[in-house]
Amino acid sequence: MTNSKIWLSSPHMGGAEEKYVAEAFASNWIAPLGPNVTGFENDISQFISEQLEYKVAALLSGTAAIHLALRMLEVTPNDIVLVQSFTFCGTTNPVSYEHAQIVFIDSEQDTWNMCPEALETALEKYKHHSVKAIIPVHLYGMPAKMDEIMLIADKYGIPIIEDAAEALGSKYKNQACGTFGLMSALSFNGNKIITTSGGGALVSKSQHYIDQARFLATQARDEAPHYQHSQIGYNYRMSNVVAGIGRGQMEVLDLRVQQRRDNNKRYRDYFKGVPGIIFQTEPTNDFFSNYWLTSILVDPAITAGISREDVRLILDKQHIDSRPLWKPMHMQPVYEGSSFIGSGICEKLFEQGLCLPSGSNLSDTDFDRIFSALDSIFK
Ligand SMILES: *Cc1c(COP(=O)(O)O)cnc(C)c1O
Q1: What is the rounded average pLDDT of the residues 347-362?
Q2: CATH code where residue 313 lies
Q3: Is there a single domain that holds both residue 155 and residue 298?
Q4: Does one domain contain both 52 and 90?
Q5: Is 370 helix (H, G, I), strand (E, B) or coil?
Q6: Both 173 and 280 in a single domain?
Q7: For the segment 196-216, what is each residue's pLDDT rounded down to a tens digit?
């Protein structure tokens, strides 16, 4: 079938998922919690640090993880949260759920993630305001410059909520993404490097935050035989069936990272010698990206007029999915008039950027189709 759709990033089961789900059925452990949830949390903890220093709460989504982190930091409408503008709305929506003010921070050219200098400018500018948290993101799997960001955050005493939704399997200075924040968010949405069909997790070194997250995620039910509540909670906990998929996926996560990185290499080989194509690239050996999505900039001034939109449309005509980079959140209608700190690097990236099909399940035949579609404009 040459005409079937090639997706940007589709679910890729490893095989063991059904075994864990079947176990949940066999034991009638369908309802929330149970051995798969605990097993999945332990698998993640083990994956991000063999010393098991990090605790994990499995949740319904990455967005829920960020929301709980903000709740636990007691972010209110009187507070400011500094957020990387270049991201998906899953980063910012939870800040708006709490009606806090967002100040958007620009990206830098090397990683496309939060610019440490713009962050410092913002912290200086708002030092007499109540800044409650900083949210950097590792876009498309590329680690942000965490050393610099953490140094600045520490200087001003502001906690980091790390959005590692796209970066499970990525590392910065040999430390796993998802372990830098006071609290960190992971996502297992359908298009991520591994998926539970939908899901997320909160990660923290602090047992207190993880206990509190589990409490808030199960409707904040106080200990009592009846239903008693002294706080507002959420129904955010992952179910034991869904966690079974996650356990199966954890068995193949290392392989998925390798497959995504191999895809990235194939695109680099293809575009070798094509002027005007710039890849999102690990700046030094300190950065290890899972290359969740291979992303490029297409500079029409150098490609003899070919734009990222030309590339997207030529692929689309062949039923091949590709997507512009995230539209910066400060440019979104919903955040019109909000504050933005930086020179607009992320606006330029958005204008020229494209995510290419990057699924770990892409076949040689799929790549032949992708490259022959690209040939029609680049060769
Ligand atoms: C996917 C994603 C999220 C949210 O994850 P969900 O599980 O879909 O809620 C947050 N931030 C970024 C950058 C993401 O890509």
Answers
A1: 98
A2: 3.90.1150.10
A3: no
A4: yes
A5: helix
A6: no
A7: 999 999 999 999 999 999 999
Average pLDDT of 241-269? 98
Instruction: End-to-end CA distance of the chain: give it in Å, rounded.
Output: 25
Q: Which residues contact 105 (CB under 8 A, 6 or more apart)?
A: 82, 83, 84, 85, 114, 115, 118, 119, 122, 340, 341, 342
| CB atoms near residue 229 (< 10 Å) | 11
Confidence (pLDDT) at 2: 55
Distance CA 46, CA 44 (A): 5
Residues 236 and 289 in one domain: no
Report strand pairing: 171-172 vs 175-176. antiparallel
Bridge partners (DSSP) of residue 278 are 297
**Residue 137 Cα: closest atom of ligand 1:** 13
Q: Which domain-ending residue is among 191, 224, 252?
A: 252
Contact 177, 170 (CB under 8 A): yes
Domains of the chain: total: 2
Report residue 230 as tokens. Answer: 């002294």
Domain termination residue (choose one: 252, 272, 290): 252
Burial class (CB in 10 A: 0-12, 13-18, 19+), 164: buried
Closest CA to 9 of 229, 171, 227, 187: 187
Query: Is residue 236 domain-shared with residue 318, that is, in the same domain?
Result: no
* Distance of alpha carbon 348 from the chain centroid: 21
Residues of the domain holding 151:
17-252
Confidence of residue 379 (pLDDT cuts 50, 70, 90): confident
The closest-lying atom of ligand 1 relative to the alpha carbon of residue 187 is 7
202 CA to centre of ligand 1 in angstroms = 12
User: Is the CB of 290 inside a 6 Å radius of any atom of ligand 1?
Assistant: no
Nearest protein Cα to ligand 1, atom 5: 62
166 lines ligand 1 (CB under 6 A): yes
Q: What is the pLDDT of residues 42-81, one digit of tens each?
A: 999 999 999 999 999 999 999 999 999 999 999 999 999 9
Separation of 117 CA from ligand 1 center, angstroms? 25
Asked if 297 and 223 sit in the same domain, the reply is: no
Residue 190 belongs to a domain: yes
